[in-house]
Amino acid sequence: MQITVNSPEQMQELGRRLAKLLRAGDLVMLNGELGAGKTTLTRGLGEGLGVRGAVTSPTFVIARVHPSLGGGPPLVHVDAYRLGGGLDEMEDLDLDVSLSDSVIVVEWGEGKVEELTDDRLLVVIHRAVGDTTDEVRHVTLTGFGERWATADLSVLSA
Ligand code: ADP
Ligand code: MG
């Protein structure tokens, strides 16, 4: 599934839509270079999930927990860039929430957090080649595992 996004606002809207597909225990991995829009997408996700607290770059804290305001799953937002050891370190973070009860969004977690679950949604964001506005992004979504085998991602591009 590939979606073209033309502005930060549209990226946030994509996050809000994606939130509707997510439930407790889901792992979303966000890849893409610095400034691609991973945190912007997560901000929309947080809005869609109805969580407390502004979603900002977690770069200096590794992980931030945003509790739900409406009884849904909390959002655990991880920047794996500083998560050297992967899963073991995740568990050592003492996040105060159970990961299986949360929606987990990991920026730059490739090769580090796959073992959290067989099921994951990989979101890769690329800047569009030759885009002089630097606002166009191509977003590729790929679901892995049983959880995503039957998910209808086409609702995201509506
Ligand atoms: P990352 O987390 O991938 O490093 P951020 O979401 O923190 O990226 O920052 C993306 C930056 O790019 C923001 O300043 C945002 O305003 C800008 N931007 C421009 N166009 C887009 C777009 N289509 N989607 C997301 N961000 C965009
Ligand atoms: Mg970021």
From TrEMBL:
Identify the InterPro entries for this entry: P-loop_NTPase, T6A_TsaE
Output the Gene Ontology terms for molecular function: ATP binding; metal ion binding
Annotated membrane-spanning segments are: none
Coiled-coil features, chain-numbered ranges = none
What keywords tag this UniProt record? ATP-binding, Cytoplasm, Magnesium, Metal-binding, Nucleotide-binding, tRNA processing
**Family statement:** Belongs to the TsaE family.
Protein name, per record: tRNA threonylcarbamoyladenosine biosynthesis protein TsaE
Underlying gene: tsaE
